[in-house]
Amino acid sequence: MATEQQTTTGGGDDEQPLGLTIASGAVAAAVIVPLLWLVKTALDVGFAEALALVTRPTTVQVFINSTILVVLVTAACVGLGVPLAYLTVRTDLPFRRFWTVVVSLPLVIPSYIGAFAFVSAFGPRGVFQRLLAPLGVESLPEIYGLPGAVLVLTLYTYPYVFITARAALKSMDTTLIDAARTLNHTRWEAFKRVTLPQIRPAVAAGALLAALYTLSDFGTPAIMRFDAFTRVIYVEFGAFGRDTATLLSLQLVGVTLLILTLESMIRGDERTTTGGRSGSVMQLGHWKYPAVGFAALVGVVALVVPLGILLTWFAQGVAATSRSLAFQPEYAFNSVLVSAATAVVGTLAALPVAYLAARHSSRVSTLFERATYVGYAVPGVVLGLALVFFGSSYATPIYQTLYLLVFAYVIRFIPQAVGSLRASFLRVDPALPEAARTLGETPTGAFRHVTLPLVAPGLLGGAALVFLTTMKELPATLLLRPAGFKTLVTHIWTAHESGYFGQAAVPALILLFVSGLSMLVIITQEGYDVK
User: Fold this and answer.
1) pLDDT tens-digit profile of 421-459?
2) What is the distance between the alpha carbons of residues 371 and 471, in angstroms, rounded to a whole number?
3) Whole-model pTM above 0.85?
4) CATH code: domain of residue 454
5) Where are the alpha helices (DSSP H) in 91-238?
6) pLDDT single digits (tens) 224-266
7) Phi/psi of residue 396, each to 5°?
8) Which residues, listed in sequence order, are joined to residue 362 by a DSSP beta bridge?
9) Where does it primarily localize (predicted)?
10) For residue 208, which of 257, 270, 170, 171 has the smallest C-alpha distance?
11) How far is residue 166's CA from residue 173's CA, in Å, rounded to a whole number?
12) Range(s) of the domain holding residue 479
């Protein structure tokens, strides 16, 4: 930012600071390079061998499994998120603010913890089966496989659709709905012809996030024993099937790009209305109690079940196990350490990219900004695999060190900081730092004394979001952590693989507590409205 008076070559209508452009380009290159190494590794596989690997029945089945999983979860998320958003915004649902918070909270719970708890509750010889045994119930419906994966992923990804749809409903002009009603449209017709086109872009954005999360999630398919892309890639890599893991990773990236393309087609033209007023809410009448029951049922299944299981494990204590499975406070410290380092580094790296995109719009700044989103679109298991290949070949001094682990986290989650900061920079009137310049401030001084304090809430909110998602990241941590370095998520995973579920209680509860605090910071700094 210190060299704003210098200019760079083309790509836009305004002059771009050379130093800022170089810094943004360096960040974009750092995100892209490891993934290019994944492509190079795949190209090293012979064409005939690659074709045989991607067309064999087991590989085709993995593709079909992942496609079915994404379609079912995304549809279920829309089916849950849109009605809940409508109930909490456009109806007289009792205690709307309370239910808004309740149905948003599942976003704090990592899906693999939810899967862990659901297996313990509903799996063979699980808690509920033991409770029902005296009544003659010898078994419950199978929780493993596709049904369990769809259930768990839906419960912990639908808030993406809920939050985006709710924001769109709150900002739309409800006089249009009133006009439709005066033309003798039923409530359903008014919703279909007026409300749905208005909120479609927001619903599509939330559905995109849900689909990408489902496609990239590793923990839930692994725990539910469902052969999706991420689980098979991790298993193949562990079994030294490097070629298969690489080609599956590229297939997964291809499916991710396809989802992004489909979302842009479904979203269509974004419609905005301004100057409208908020109309009267819909009276639920006799449907009020079923609506409350619906919101309560979602809250109970998504929150009470996993928390109840974890608290039961905690209250009962854990059986004596080997020292390697005993929880150590350093695991929490390690998680906080790498998450805080990622939040700091990621936010600092996002500053030049976000500032350039907000203040110097051009093809170059847009390219650099979009490039930073590649890491977020690529699943963590693929990114981890790419950095394993890259680090072991070209970055051996930092391979299996915390530096490479933090680097992976930054690549994965920097878009969250970029998005938050760019929105904050756009809200700052450019005349304010210019006024500071006329009073003798240098470009750096104007940025530090005027712009930075104004964007501080967005900066802190973005850093908190990066911290939160880093705390929960599982596959990249498993693939890239240094030998002997254990965190909350790695200990939870070790407890799962060893079959000692009780050992996961303490680290899981700590993770949920820290995640809740991070979400509180995000809500406070970014002003999330629950009214």
Assistant:
1) 887 888 777 877 778 778 777 777 777 778 788 888 778
2) 24
3) no
4) 1.10.3720.10
5) 96-104, 111-122, 127-132, 146-171, 175-182, 187-190, 196-216, 219-223, 229-238
6) 999 998 999 888 877 766 778 888 888 888 888 788 777 667 6
7) -60, -30
8) 12
9) membrane
10) 257
11) 13
12) 8-44+317-531
